[in-house]
Structures are given as structure tokens and as C-alpha cells.
Amino acid sequence: VPHGTRNPIGWGFVEEAATDKERRRLARALQAFLGIELSDERRPPPPEAVALPAPRIAAPPHLSGLVHAGHTDRLLRATGRSYANLAHIRSGRLEHAPDLVATPTSEDELERVLEWAHKSGVAAIPFGGGSSVVGGVDPLVPDGFAGVMTLDLQGICEVHEVSTVDRTVTAGAGILGPDLDRALAPHGLTMRHYPQSYLHSTLGGWVATRSAGHYATHLVKIEDRVEAMRVLLPDGRRIDTLRVPASSVGPDPNRLWAGSEGALGIITQVTARAVPTPKHRQVSSVHFARFDRGLEAMRDIVQAGLQPSHLRLLDPYEQAVSAAMSGGRVHAGSTLILGFEAAELDVAPAMAAALRIASAHGGSTEAAAPESSAASWRSTFFRTPYLRDAMLDWAVVAETFETAVPWSRAAGAYASIRDATLEAVLAVCGTGGVLARTTHAYPDGISLYFTYYGRGRHGALAEQAGEIKAAASAAVVAAGGTISHHHAMGRDHKRWAAKDVPAPYQEAIRAAKRSLDPSGILNPGLWWCPG
Amino acid sequence: VPHGTRNPIGWGFVEEAATDKERRRLARALQAFLGIELSDERRPPPPEAVALPAPRIAAPPHLSGLVHAGHTDRLLRATGRSYANLAHIRSGRLEHAPDLVATPTSEDELERVLEWAHKSGVAAIPFGGGSSVVGGVDPLVPDGFAGVMTLDLQGICEVHEVSTVDRTVTAGAGILGPDLDRALAPHGLTMRHYPQSYLHSTLGGWVATRSAGHYATHLVKIEDRVEAMRVLLPDGRRIDTLRVPASSVGPDPNRLWAGSEGALGIITQVTARAVPTPKHRQVSSVHFARFDRGLEAMRDIVQAGLQPSHLRLLDPYEQAVSAAMSGGRVHAGSTLILGFEAAELDVAPAMAAALRIASAHGGSTEAAAPESSAASWRSTFFRTPYLRDAMLDWAVVAETFETAVPWSRAAGAYASIRDATLEAVLAVCGTGGVLARTTHAYPDGISLYFTYYGRGRHGALAEQAGEIKAAASAAVVAAGGTISHHHAMGRDHKRWAAKDVPAPYQEAIRAAKRSLDPSGILNPGLWWCPG
Predict the structure, then answer these.
(1) Cβ separation of A482 and B515 shorter than 8 Å?
(2) Which residues of B touch A405 (CB under 8 A)?
(3) Are A461 and A87 spatial neighbours (Cβ–Cβ below 8 Å)?
(4) Going by fewer Cβ within 10 Å, which terminus of chain B is more open, N or C?
(5) What's the pTM value of the predicted model, to 2 decimals?
(6) What is the largest CA-CA distance in chain B?
(7) Strand, helix or coil at A470?
(8) Is-contact B284 B331, C-beta < 8 A?
(9) Rounded to whole angstroms, what are the CA distances from A262 to A124, A414, A517, B412?
(10) Which residues, 6+ apart, have CB-to-CB distance to A224 below 8 Å?
């Protein structure tokens, strides 16, 4: 079932591009809250006008039909979907593109393609939905390769088994989020894993990047949902990890490939833990005069053992812009979106307990939000990335980034990262602002998610975004945060990852890579690739 | 605070050895339910009479006071505490013992000791509480080492920080379970991690072996409780993983050392996630005519999203022996011990929901058990290993082993593993029996825990146990189970671990080991050690 036409020069599907109404609301919000006046709108070049470097290699005859070199084939996989990626596309000329694109529809076909790459010294970049915002699929590889081939895995998407007894699904790693849920739905199950890229990302991509969904607590990270997987190595070896709920035999193999971003083997199949489709839902909004009081309430809620599905604290700036864009009411202060969902158990007692805690921290609760508001938020959440295309039209520099820190550093990290980012936005752009919200909460800490907007200059957008990213990333590291809570490392975070991945660990994983990928062809250019 | 005198020839503390009353009850149960008549009681030799091989190396003068070679020092660390280990000790002669024992009380002292081992080609075996039942600390190393030094880490046990905000504790890896909880108690916190070795095992040992506590669901495995750790490498490099609640930067470093059994570096410090001390408790017993109906009830309970602290199904044999030993009533059929605990939230609704599910599967509930029964079971749980010493006196062959399987294989695995083990017990011993219970439950599967008893022969006990273990382990593998759910791999499970750790993964971890431990001195002899 095709979901839409993949947009080779923007986010998602061509048919789903931002509407005029969405663009007008965004423009009003940017003007009202961030002082960004919009003018000089420039639409992107048509896809066929984006120049790509000439392919350096050709596919051998025995791979005919499996490997392609057409302009659209290559353009569609030439970058991920970071702001800088899209700005580069709009320049009308990409410095890097895969020489070839493979579209295997089975593990055997993938093996044939990989075998050739392995023997020919061709770098191979696994590509799921291509929604990486961290340079994870950008064909930037060190010197020494004959060329670069991107492996589009969406054809390896068969659903092999749904076990209603184990509540697991075994599927090809290239299956897209909605297709996976479509296979589960008749059994009353769902993956209930909704990253913002849900419509455009794959099960294997989630695992390879240690993705998190939009639910705030409990089963947040995809690596906790992996029962087993199959990995294909370039020299033809296959690895099937054991289908068991837990084990203590050595370091967990599943955890070596979770987060490996295709550099340690190609994840071709995953057995994932599904959950029953939620039937009971309650959602509330709680207002706090101060962001840090909201954080304290959140902490007490999760540390009490409650596991809300929604627990998202918007800072005053995020609250204002978000309300303006959705046509809602703008409040002073911070808003906590609090929700519970369950398949079988009543959620009312948990909601009541959470609201008591919030109230004890000075939160004031409006009338309970309608049950539909969670679904409505999710759909807004999926729409947001389309607005980046509008911002690129307007020369607005805008990016999101996130981190996670222990609770003891949460308020400090929020303030210092926000301040540093705002300072950089103002230095680079003159005008702009920074918004923040929490996305995920754990008993020992929290994920903080920032969005900034600044008035940029056509032709310099990627550089401007890069300058701001450098300042923001340095602030994240200084605050003791991870450089990525749920977007992986990619190529873009290498400079700031020394604390996340200490040097001796990096060396050990590189040694493991040499064993798994002797020719070093798998997604070279990531930190665990030598060179 | 000393907890007791470590028993060099049996389990635990000398002062806590099985009482005459416990021995009488056990003897009655073995006779009544398993037909094992007890005679020919033989007490173990005194510790000073156990012959050890002469040390092959001496400590250099600069390590004086840190490294010891006395008989008791070496005997105490000459084996773990598997049945075979204890049987070997009772033979009065150990073929293998560490040549030296180091007792560092700081990371700096450990570094000095390790540096010497690294330069001198001396194998170094990290040793926490020494309670391994899988040969994890047995000084059996491949040829080529100058000698073997066991590193007793119990001196590295300082509590560096208790964060009541993050609910974490940072402590030296050598801290024993009770000491860790003693540090947490004034803050209203506990690790709430009670392996059967709790009194005799260390935080670092738990992490290195991917231990599980005695609670049945939710935060079962210690690796889910690790926020960060420090690892010391033989060449002096130190690794501190980042203190964050979650991340997506590369494969998770904490998961490389969780389960590494000291072969990839010495875990010297752990920041672990504590929990608030439970205040609310309810416990019930539910009887099922059939074990498999009990399994179905358990599955529905966990898949409904309930997270009972106790969810332990005893098969009819386990139920009978366990009741006989505790002086309780013997029922026909299987018994499900069901309990909920919470620090702040009411547990009654969850208990009611679980009992409704159990009842729908034909379970009949007795009057709720007194709240103290969970604590009483825990204390019985801690007493059980002392009874092995009595069984060795009586020439009863007795061992426990466990696995985990998906729900869809649970009933089949229970039957086939039980049958194969019983067949082996009868073939080897003539008389005996097999007991089983579940220990841990997950949404996608379960851990099954078996105990067997057989009439053995003094002088042949280790061999008899080994023969039965081989048959039982083969049945575990044939049933698709992991060869160890919570006791790690050690040396004893290597033969049966090919499905748990597929060959290319083994090679990759060996490559990582060569990078982390260039001289290969760390706990050689495990699967991830070459040779």
C-alpha cells in the first residue's frame, strides 16, 4: 500500500505538504512571538534541477534490476532530512550522492548486493525511511572507496508472524511504522511506537538508531522492545539472536546492534514486542507558573511509580507558539500535558494520583481535556516537520535537538542550554527565539527537547544552522547531557560525543566492527568506522 | 560491618549453616516425596585439610600487603559455589586455585595490581562475593599464563553518593547487597534487588553477570538499573559512562560490560537506580489444578499491564516439597504466589484485577496471605543454599538451573526440560525427582527454574551432577531457551551457548576484548576469551 509520493526535496510525502492555512498560522506565530518578519519567500528548485555528482561506478550486469542509478533514485537517498540536508538540496547542487541505489526485496537479494559491494570496495549505506536528522544516511564516506551504494531496505518488509500469545511481531526490517501497525491491528495489538517520523521510518531504522516514540514513560525506547533480530554481514554471515524474553549469557547481542546505525551489520528482521491497543484514555492539562515547578511535579509523578503515556511539560515559549499554531489559548507559564492510556485497566485512579501530585506542586488543572486531544496532538506532531519546508522558503533557520539529563541537573540544563542557544540564535540571526519542552521522563531523569527559530539568509541557511548547532551542542555537553536522546549519533554528532562514548569504548567497538565488517564498507564515516 | 565468617568449604557464613531442624525437615521431604533414603552421612574435611596446588608465582615486593598467598586466602577464592565446586572441595584436593589473591581497597590499589598482572602475563579473575554457580570465578585458565591472581573486590565498597533527587546510588562495585541497602535506607530508598546470593554478592558482580532479583516483574534485571559505571582496564585506561537516564548515541556502553563477567574490564563503580522502600503490600496464594492453567493466568496478568512483585507458580512437586520443608500444607496441583508492593500507590486495585484474571483461569484463592509471608518467603529463599551443604553430607546430588522462553513455548519447555532432567536423574541416580517453578515473568515470556535431587555416591557427586547437567542443558537448548536467565555464562555453560551467542557475535566480542584487554589477562577461559 503506497502511503504517498516521497518528496525528494522536502519532508515526507508530496501530497501532505504544509497547507496554506498551516503556513499562515506559523507565519503569524513567528511574527507575534519571535519578532521574525517574513519576506523574500523562495520555493525550492524542482527535483530534476538539483544537480548530483556523476556516478563513479556502474552496477554489474548480475545485479541488473536490483541496483539503480537514475536521478530520482539517487536524489531520494542523497541525504537524510535534517534542516541542513534540506537547505543543501535547495542550493540546487549536492556535493555528495550515492553512486548507486539498491532496492532488494528479500534477504537473498540483499546478500547478492552486499557481496558485490564487499568484494568491490563499495561503501554500503543502509537506508530505511531516510528520515535521519543527524546525517545517519548521508553518503559522506572517507576516501578509499570505489563508490557509495545506498541500500534502500523498504522492500524487505514482509510480516512473518504475529504471535498473539507472546504479543510479538516478526517482520522485515524495512517495514514502515503504519504497515507494522496495520498487520497488528486485527489482533488487537499495536507497536505503540510513534516517533515524529512514524509515517516515514522503518522498524529496522528505529532499532538501528535507538529511537523513542512520543509516549513519555514506560517502553519509551525501541531497544527495550526488541526480543530478537536477524543481522546480515557483508561477507554473507547471518546472525539470528535467540527469541527469549531475557537472558544473562554474555553482553546482550541485541544491544550491540541497537544504535549501530548500519555500521556493524544490516538488521534485516526484528521480532518486536507489541502491546494491546489502548482502550481507556484520560488527558489533562496542568498549568504551572514556573517551568521548574512543573519539572518537580513530573519527577514526583514518575517516581511514585505512575507511568503516564503523556507527560510533556511545555515551557512558556513553546506553550505560546504551540497554542498560536493550533489556534488554542495562550497562557502565561508552563503547561503540563498529562495523559494515561491502558488496554484493560482503569486509568482513572492513576490520573487522580498524578493530578494530586501536580496540585501539590502548585499546578492548576483545567477541566479534563477531551479524550480525542491526545490523538489530535499526535496528528499535529506528525504535521510539524512539514512546516520546516515553509521555513526554508522564508529563510527561517529552525532546528530541533534534544538531550537527556538526570533530574538533579534538569532545571540547570534547561536554563543553560536555552541561554546558550538563544545567544547563538541572536548572534547569528539577530532575531529569533528558543522553545523547549520535555519529551520523555524516567525515574532518574528526563529528556529535554529544544526548538529554535531565527531570521536567516537565503544561501547561508545550512551554515547558519551549523553555527547555532555548534553552540547548542557545546552547551548540551557542558550540562552533562547526552548529545542525542533519541535521534542517534549519525555524522552530525561525532564532535560532541566523547563523553557519551569514551575513547576506549570507541576503540573496542571499532575492533568489533573490523570483525563483523572486514572490508569496512558498512556506513563508513560514523564514529565506529576507522578513519 | 562484618556479616559473618565466610565459609571456605560451603555456602555463605559459617555461623549461618543449616540448623538441625532444617536438616531434619529436608530429610523428611526428600524421603517422603522423592523416595531418597539418607544414610552414610559424611561431613566435609576441615578447611586446612583441603590441599591446594603450590603457588607458581610470588607477588613482587611493591605489592606487599595487597597480594596474599595464604592457604585460607586462596581456598576462599578457589571456586565459586556451584554444587560441583562444593563437591570438589569435599574431595579434599583442588586441582586449581589462584596462585595469589589481591585485596585492593581502592581503584588506585587495583590499578597497581592490574598493571603488574598485565605486564607479567598473570591471569586476573575479578571476584565479588564469589557466589557464582556457573564457574564464573573458577581459576581455570588456558595455558600460557604465568599464574592466576584472583582480585577480591569487596574492599572497593565506598558509597560515594546517594541522590534522593535522581534516586540513584553511586558506590564501589565491591559493596555487598545488604551494605548497599543500609546506605540507602536512611533516604527511604532500597535497591530492591534480591538474588538468592544477596547477602554474599556484590553490586559489581550483579552487573557483570546480569543478575535478576527475586521480584517477578518490572525492574527484574540489574542491567536495567544501571545509570552509569566506571570500568578499569589492565593497561590503566579508565572508562566512565555518562550519567544520563537514556541515550541514543551508539550501542549502549553500559550494555557491553553488563554480562561481561570481568573479561572486558573491571567494573569498579556503579551508579544504580534505587527505588523507594515499599510500604504497601498484599500477598495471595492461588491454586490451580494444572500447571499450564497457572501459566495462562500469569500471562494474562502481566499482559494486562499489571506488575506484581511476586508472581511465582510452583509446580505440584515444588509445591509439595516446599510446603513440607516450611511446615506448611501440601496441596495437589500448582500454587501461584501473587503479591504487589508499592511505595506510594494503593496496591489493592491491582491485586483485585490480578485475582479476577486468575479466577477466570480456574484458580481458587485462599484467604489472602499475611503481609509478612513475602518477607518470610524471602528469608526461606536466602536459607535454601545452606541446605546444599547438608545434601552433600548425605550424598544427595542436587542442583538448580533456569532458562527463559517465550510464552508460546512455556508449557512445552516446562514438560520437555522436566522430562529430560528426570530421565537423567533416574538414569544416573536410580532415585530422585525434579521440581519446577517460575521465577520471572515478562510480557513476552517467562523464566522457568528447575531443581533436581537424586541419590548420589560419595566420591562421584561432581561427575553425577555433571552428567545430569549435560542432559538438562541439552533439553534447555532443544526447547529454544536461553542457557541462563540470571546466572550468567561462566565456564560451565560454554558448551550450550551457541544459540545465545551466535558465532559472528562471539568473534566480534573477542575482537572488542583484544582492544580492551590487550594482554588477554582478564578472566580468561570464558567464551569471549580467545583459546
Answers:
(1) no
(2) 244-245
(3) yes
(4) N
(5) 0.97
(6) 70
(7) helix
(8) no
(9) 9, 32, 11, 36
(10) none
A167, A239, A256 ranked by CB distance to B443: nearest:
A167
ipTM of the complex: 0.96
Contacts with B499 from chain A: Cβ below 8 Å: 242
> At CA B78, angle to CA B74 and CA B84, rounded to 5?
155
Which of A343, A483, A503 shows the shortest C-beta gap to B305? A343
Q: Best mutation site among A217, A401, A444 for testing chain B: the one with the most B CBs within 10 Å?
A: A444
Element spanning A255, H or E: helix A253-257
| Confidence band of A363 (pLDDT split at 50, 70, 90) | very high
A28/chain B closest Cα distance in angstroms = 35
Q: Per residue, what are the HEC states of B122-143?
A: EEEEEECCCCCCCCCCCCCCCC
Interface test mutation site (partner B, options A217, A230, A232, A249, max chain B beta carbons within 10 A): A249
Q: Are B202 and B173 in contact (CB under 8 A)?
A: yes
| Contact between B169 and B188 (Cβ < 8 Å) | no
Q: Shortest Cα distance from A363 to chain B (angstroms)? A: 20
Q: How many CB pairs under 8 A join A and B?
A: 303
Contact between B446 and A497 using a beta-carbon 8 Å cutoff: no
- Helix, strand, coil percent content, chain A, rounded in steps of 5: 35, 25, 40
Q: Is residue B172's pLDDT more than 70? A: yes
pLDDT confidence of residue B369: 65
Shortest CA distance to B137 belongs to which of B193, B93, B197, B97?
B97
Rg of chain A in Å (alpha carbons): 23
Q: Decide if pLDDT at B113 tops 80.
A: yes
φ/ψ of A519, rounded to 5, equals -90, -5
Yes or no: say if A225 and A273 are a contact pair by the CB < 8 Å rule: yes
Contact yes or no for A345 and B209 at CB 8 A? no
Of B248, B273, B445, the CB nearest to A259: B248
Locate the chain A residue with the closest alpha carbon to B528: A250
Measured CA distances, A502 to A268, A516, B269, B476 (Å):
29, 21, 16, 38
C-alpha cell recorded at residue A66: 536490483
Q: How far is A384 from chain B (nearest CA, A)?
A: 22
Question: What does chain B come to in residues?
Answer: 531
DSSP A262: T
**Which among B186, B209, B181 is positioned nearest to B378, based on CA atoms?**
B181
Residue B371 has pLDDT above 70, yes or no: no
Q: For strands A445-455 and A396-406, give the pairing.
A: antiparallel
With contact defined as beta carbons under 8 Å apart, do A370 and A284 qualify? no
Question: CB–CB of A191/A284 below 8 Å?
Answer: no
Cell numbers of B19, please?
A: 540448623
Cβ separation B233–A440 shorter than 8 A: no
How far is the alpha carbon of A301 from chain B, nearest alpha carbon, in Å?
A: 10
> What is the nearest CA distance from B337 to chain A, expressed in angstroms?
21
- Integer Cα distance of B182 and A479 in angstroms: 31
Q: What are phi and psi of B365, to 5 degrees?
A: -100, 130
Listed in sequence order, the residues at least 6 apart from A81 whose beta carbon sits closer than 8 Å to its beta carbon are A11, A130, A131, A132, A133, A197, A385
**Who among B245, B305, B447 is closest to A442 (CB)?**
B245
Residue A228, min C-alpha distance to chain B (Å): 11
Instruction: Share the mean pLDDT of chain A.
Output: 95
Residue holding cell 536410580?
Answer: B430
- Listed in order, strand segments (DSSP E) in A414-500 are 432-442, 445-455
CB contacts of A245 in chain B (<8 Å) are 404-406, 442-447
Question: Could you give the 3-state DSSP secondary structure of residue B187?
Answer: helix
Phi, psi of B72, deg, nearest 5: -65, -40
Tally Cβ neighbours within 10 Å of residue A181.
20
Beta strands in B111-192 (DSSP E): 122-127, 147-152, 159-163, 168-172, 189-190
